[in-house]
Amino acid sequence: MCLFCKIVNKEIPANIELEDENFLAFHDINPKAPVHILVIPKKHIAGFNEVDAQTMADITPFIQTLVKKLDIKQSGYRLICNIGENGGQEVMHLHWHVLGGAKLKFDHLSDADPKDFL
Ligand code: AMP
To answer: Residue 113 and which of 14, 44, 103, 106 are 20 to 30 A apart at CA?
Structure first.
């Protein structure tokens, strides 16, 4: 069973921020911003390549409720979904990073030049 499935099954503890029948939101163990939450579907989906349209539709209001609860709706936040090896995905269970609580840096997209990777 994957790490995040164990969190869903409460076999591994997590600091849960919001939960419903289909989704779970919990604090990242290694936060990269004052607010850093991971949002996952409870059913195991390996990543964005495998996700179905209904899950994507349903996760939207869940995240919108979450950011209201966290009080970052108006100040802004960033949603990140890392996909596969080049995307930096380490846990193979679909998850969205919700980052906020401060003005976030945008290092990669602002500084990177495609030639740097050649
Ligand atoms: P990614 O690189 O997109 O796969 O992100 C995986 C994230 O899961 C990282 O930000 C980790 O800090 C986080 N993480 C790993 N193990 C745990 C855990 N037990 N509880 C909460 N977050 C975790």
So the answer is: 103
